[in-house]
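ok trying again, last paste got cut off:
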Amino acid sequence: MTSNDVVSMRVLTVPNLISFARLLLVPVFALLLARGQDGWALAVLAGSGASDWLDGVLARRMGQVSRLGQMLDPAADRLFIVVTLVALALREIVPWWLLGVLALRDVVLAVMLVVLARAGYAPLPVHLAGKAGTFALLYAFPLLLLAEWDSWLGTVAGVAGWAFALWGVALYWFSAVLYLAQARELLRDDPIDAPDPA
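nice, full thing came through this time. structure:
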């Protein structure tokens, strides 16, 4: 989102419907992975990643940036990331430390949001680094799943998947540092002067 985008309170918009559909795909994806239907799970995951890009583009081009969309979009991203990581870790495709590192980052930022809210501040705007990290992780998971295939394609997918995963983790935490620095600057001000979160 740019500074020129007008944020509305609309609920029924095309981007919001796409984000909501992506939320509904989370349990479908989890079920497919649990049943070992990796091909279909891969298709759902790839479709979710594409829709994540699409809803943002449509929101800006159609002038349909909304507060609900700003909540639905990252919620769908987080759910897909968590569900995918847990499923892949259970199948020993990725190590548990990867889940722990990403979960810790979200816990840190959740605490930061509570502190900001108590001081009267609205959630901070999304940083490009955070969005880039999310994109990298959403690209990494289909590739890591594809890496399970016993072929040259699986080998290439494994290398690319881990490259995206490690870059995603780095960008995820880099964005967290940026958020924490921004929150620190805000909290230096008098809470009375804090902007109205509405």
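cool. The helical segments are 14-34, 38-61, 67-90, 96-118, 128-146, 152-188. Residues 192-198 have pLDDT under 50 and may be disordered.
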